[in-house]
Amino acid sequence: MYKYFSGERTRRVRFDHEHPKYEDFIDLWDKCRTCYLGEEAVKKASQSYLPFLSGQESTEYYRYKSRAIFLNIVKRTVQGLVGAAIRKTPIIDVPVGLEPHLEDCDLLGTSITELIHDILEELLVTGRSTLVIDRMDNSRTYLTQYNAESFMNWRMNQNVPTMAVFAEQLDVSMDGYDHHMKTQYRVYDFNEAGEVRVQIAMEKPPEEQKEDEDAFEIIYETVPTMKGDALRKLPIFTINSTGLGFDTMDSPPLLDLANLSLSHYRTSADLENGRHYTSLPQPWITGVDPDEYRHGIAVGGDTAWIIPNEMAKLGYLEFTGAGLGSLENALSEKEQMMAIAGARLLESKKGVESAEVSRIRQNIETSILSSIVINLQNGIEKALKYMAEWEGLNPDDVNVELNMDFVDVRIPHQEIIALVQSYQMGGISMDTLLHNLKQGEVIPSDVSIEEERDKIELDHGTVEQPQQDRSEVLEDSPEEKVRKELSDSGRGD
Question: What distances in angstroms separate CA 82 from CA 88, 119, 217, 363, 403, one per listed residue?
Fold first, then answer.
């Protein structure tokens, strides 16, 4: 379907076509990403998220928008969820030959842990991220991550990917100081021999486009090989919040939170606009010649008004602002709704959220993270297995385990002491003690109970501690201390 370098052409093509599902989701991705970027990005979008008020002029709208406050709850929530997910180091096992790739997986110095962090953010913001594996001539394989907005078109044949198109921004400036960005399209498909083909196309300048020719020019084409043979499947792995695959798409996980944030933003604009007009009293005068005061009258504590007409009246027009209470209540209600929708770090007026809100929020967060982390784990593992195979290594030696414990459950110091004392007194076994210490993250996650028991035996010569008499564990009572002192001095009887 594409034009070859030989000049053969079956039909005219446009590489900038968008997949129907891409068209359905692009506005949702843009909304969530804008909210994630924060107040400046939201206000730059102007009427997309804050419409003009009826009869409002451009200057008035600018002031209306500038007074509004946007709470960046989406970013704070994403950061909180990412922090919970990566609070424990991922366990990644690969063949020895692939270990250097973990320190620099994209030839730009990005480690696999950093890449996991970046992909996790993307999955929370848009619900979609794509990994492409490539190999430079006489070099090694590497990973390239594409966000949801860049992966613009694809094709499936019986659930098998047969085409993928990515939009890339390229600086085509002719000097070292100017910056002129142009879009190029990286296309993965199959040639007539069933081999994976990679093409890079760029739209021709308008003056070079002719009606009977393609508007796009292929500037690069290659057929990548693995062990001397052409690839037979696309080296592309798309990770979604709900699964893997090109077509496995769903709404962004935090879309509801983004919508609530924008609604809160619009209510804030109305409230602050109302406060502006109701908090500034307006001076007025009657009974004077308008022509005499056509240039206005200065108002201030150091200004005196001399009005010859004794019948003249003056005063200040003040608004009560009684209607603003409903807007304030609306803001509070929306903040509670955002908290229930998963808004981490959003505190109530008292600084403490209710137990019910906390329980609901934690359940939502855990549900979101569990699905995303599992899909991320599977996607990373599949990509690394493909890289291992491409490098001539055993893909079965690849294993990826990401953290699924999202809540910090470290035991307080007092509870640790109580557990140890209970063991010393024979109340619990060594295994129970070690199990609780591991659950409470006193024992490192990568150390098993058996390993910890072996370490104790090595350090102390035995696993089981001899059971001690209760009087040796508990601190002596004041009466016992006095008796011992008298006994030691010979006055015990």
Answer: 11, 10, 41, 16, 11
Q: Which residues pair with 201 in a beta bridge?
A: 185, 218
d(CA 299, CA 158): 78
CA distance 130 to 144: 8
Using one digit for the tens of pLDDT, what is the confidence trace for 58-72? 899 999 899 898 988
- 129-175 tens-digit pLDDT: 999 999 877 789 999 999 999 999 999 998 899 999 999 988 877 77
Q: Can you name the residues that pair with 181 across neighbouring β-strands?
A: 171
How many Å apart are CA 267 and CA 273, to the nearest integer? 10
Q: Report how far residue 17's alpha carbon sits from residue 219's, in angstroms, rounded to the nearest whole number.
A: 18
Question: Which residues partner with 144 through β-bridges?
Answer: 132
Between 196-205, 219-228, 382-391, 430-439, the lowest mean confidence (pLDDT) is in: 430-439
* Predicted TM-score of the model (pTM): 0.72
Q: Which of 324, 328, 366 is nearest to 344 (CA)?
A: 366
Tracing tokens 């699924």 back to the chain, one arrives at: 404
List the chain domain ranges: 282-317, 413-488
Burial class (CB in 10 A: 0-12, 13-18, 19+), 227: exposed
pLDDT at 316 over 70: no
